[in-house]
Input
Amino acid sequence: MSTNARFAVVLVRPDSPENIGLAARGMANTGFADLRLVGLDRLEAPAWRTGIHAESILEGARFFKSLEEAVADREIVLGSTARVRHDYPLVSLAEAAERIGEYPDAARVGLVFGNERTGLTQEELGRANVRFHIPQVGRQPSYNLGVAVTLTLHAITFRSGPAAALRRDLPLDHAAQAEAGRRFSAMLDSLGFMHDTNRAFIVEKVQDIFFRMALTAKDRDVILAMFRKALEGPRERRPRPPKKAGKELP
Amino acid sequence: MSTNARFAVVLVRPDSPENIGLAARGMANTGFADLRLVGLDRLEAPAWRTGIHAESILEGARFFKSLEEAVADREIVLGSTARVRHDYPLVSLAEAAERIGEYPDAARVGLVFGNERTGLTQEELGRANVRFHIPQVGRQPSYNLGVAVTLTLHAITFRSGPAAALRRDLPLDHAAQAEAGRRFSAMLDSLGFMHDTNRAFIVEKVQDIFFRMALTAKDRDVILAMFRKALEGPRERRPRPPKKAGKELP
Output
């Protein structure tokens, strides 16, 4: 039935049932069917008032305790944010739609939208392989949640312009990407890279980098094998160079 | 203040104040400010609930008795329709946005949206120089009104793709286009083209063609001068050819 069966729309802690309904209606308009809700366990009646012709989508909605569970089976996760920050790569909606086109048609995609006022947390946004924003004039206000979902889905379904120049391989699913990040972090730990004051920071950075790469199975195998070698092989501990007291050489 | 000061958004007989607010919020997001409402004389409170950060747009909204009055000062009128019919030219939203780019920057544009359930009447749609639809999957349901407005404005403000290949001249304003149609119809009447059973049909067709051409002042002067000549000069009435009874020649 659904034109875009490989996509899931994930709403994280939405406040307004009207907005959920509006998002579901936008899904029906643009050919999406898989709605996932994080942080709630039921739908309130007003969702049906705005979810015109989207009853089956609302009835089929699934509920998850965390974003991690909601996107575990996705190979590509896109996270929407209204905050344009410059400390991480952020693409426009049009670029995000194009990026999806670079992955194989088999890639299952999660499109993630945060709460109306607070958006996604840093940790949630960090799970996204691609972070995108919907262009607007001025920095405030952001789009209504149901409108933002529909703008995004419309851009994906009716993307015009040339076919993607780049073709990427199918990434691991999200759960396996997260697991690879954890294993890599554990290896770094064994190698003595971490201590109590930097552990949390390094673990977060590793996850961030791994999700940004949207690792394929081959990527993971190469990276982990490389580091396993480093762990197993004879390691020469070189003495730390003495702390420099003088000027740095250019 | 407004990025798109030459545009007016015209909502014709909207039922839901929430949708008016949602449209106004979409206008704020995408840099539009001129909101015109046809068929109501005040805004109900719920418009302010959904019109987040769009208070000044709602406060500045103007009320009109008819679409004709609401777009009288526009050179280009675009009418949105969810009904894809094949008896008149209909372009997609992306093509409509491109068409706007073909007109001079001085052209004042009216973007017209009908009632949530019934849309624009045939007569209202006939006033549009360009009729467009927002692509969707399947024929029903149509987009929520506030969503449709925001999709349209977003497509206009953030249009990507090459600059328009065609550059058009500035058309007459809508009131002058309508007046040219009326004068042309009156001339046709004087020439004996109309009788009681076809008058309404011909008048409507003439208006339809005139609006579709988005007449410039020069177009109008040439067309009306040509027909004035025909009216003033000696007209030879040729006898009607006899009705063909036999076969048509190939």
